[in-house]
From TrEMBL:
Pfam families: NMT1_3. It comes from Rhodobaculum claviforme. The keyword Signal applies. Residues 1-22 form the signal peptide. This is C4-dicarboxylate ABC transporter substrate-binding protein. The keyword Signal applies.
Length: 327
């Protein structure tokens, strides 16, 4: 009898610790994947971290999947090939409009907003030995790595540099691979679009001397006028190379969910991520911006009902019904 009471008490305690996550699991998937990007970039490190956190807290096996980045993630989630993913506002808008290059003409409306992640700054890195210290220093025909094909960087950075008068040879690849090519002299510049600090840049700093190149005020103004980005400052403390804050531009990132996933599952997953920011910051410093008040940075995607309910209940979000999927 005593052992039975102890077992019952243990079960009650476990339920209390698990809270709402232990209830209302009707229709929950047996496992899940999070579409991220290439290894060496912020999407992969951040995505793998929150996938593991959600898996541990909810008791549902899950993990990160290496992908081509925001455009491919929209396609994977829309098609139901991944439960969750990570995207950026620009690629999300293009995907919903049917102009995603992965599937031209397909309006990817089954990928719903889940939670705000962080801003993606656009930054340029070159070896110090190259003598490139400004955008204007980039020589005509420079070999520039723009990240994986179809990524946020690959979609927008070439257009930005063209707007600034830079002529280049376009190269693609994972961030770690491009960082290695830069170090080996196979590239002249890498144009990064990723949450800071970018793991590949931090690794380069350890191995060699680099220049992290900021935009001039005029260059920043040109980009702000022509592209869906906002002004951003990379703090000097982000990298050992930086001696002062660096001027940049950025685009917001959001986690996305298959719109057909159960409301209770997505609500519980959002709660795991958004209820304890310190845990997220331990995963990646970019998560300092993974805060409930940034719900309003989603201006293009329908919200998953479970996610919308969490932000309405916990962040005072005013999300209109016509921005919530199925409402």
């Amino acid at each position: 009898m005593r052992s039975t009471r102890i077992a019952a008490l243990a079960a009650t305690t476990l339920l209390a610790v698990s809270g709402a996550h232990a209830q209302d699991r009707d229709g929950w998937p047996s496992s899940f994947t999070v579409g991220t990007a290439s290894q060496g970039g912020t999407f992969f490190a951040y995505g793998a971290g929150w996938a593991n956190l959600v898996s541990d807290e909810l008791g549902v096996p899950g993990g990160a999947e290496v992908t081509g980045g925001p455009m491919q993630n929209m396609a994977l989630v829309h098609n139901g090939d991944a439960a969750f993913g990570m995207t950026t506002m620009g690629p999300a808008a293009e995907s919903i409009a049917g102009t995603n290059p992965i599937a031209p003409g397909l309006e990817m409306t089954n990928a719903c907003a889940m939670f705000p992640m962080y801003e993606t700054p656009f930054s340029v890195t070159a070896l110090a030995s190259s003598g490139i210290t400004t955008i204007a220093d980039i020589p005509a025909g420079a070999r520039i790595g723009f990240g994986p094909a179809g990524s946020t960087s690959d979609t927008y950075f070439p257009l930005m540099l063209e707007a600034l008068g830079v002529e280049f040879e376009r190269r693609n690849g994972g961030w770690s691979d491009l960082g290695g090519q830069l170090q080996d002299g196979l590239l002249d510049v890498v144009a990064f679009a990723a949450g800071v600090p970018i793991p590949a840049v931090s690794q380069l700093e350890v191995q060699t001397r680099v220049n992290i190149i900021e935009f001039t005020e005029e260059e920043q103004a040109t980009i702000l006028e022509q592209f869906p980005v906002s002004g951003f400052t990379i703090p000097a403390a982000t990298y050992t190379t930086l001696q002062e804050d660096a001027r940049s531009v950025s685009m917001w990132n959001f986690a996305i969910a298959d719109c057909s996933l159960p409301e209770s599952f997505v609500h519980a997953a959002v709660d795991v991520v958004m209820s304890d920011n310190a845990r997220m910051v331990n995963i990646h410093r970019a998560a300092t911006e993974t805060l409930p008040e940034h719900w309003d940075k989603n201006t293009v995607m329908m919200w998953h009902p479970g996610a919308a309910r969490w932000f309405i209940e916990n962040a005072g979000a005013e999300i209109p019904d016509d921005m919530i999927h199925g409402e």
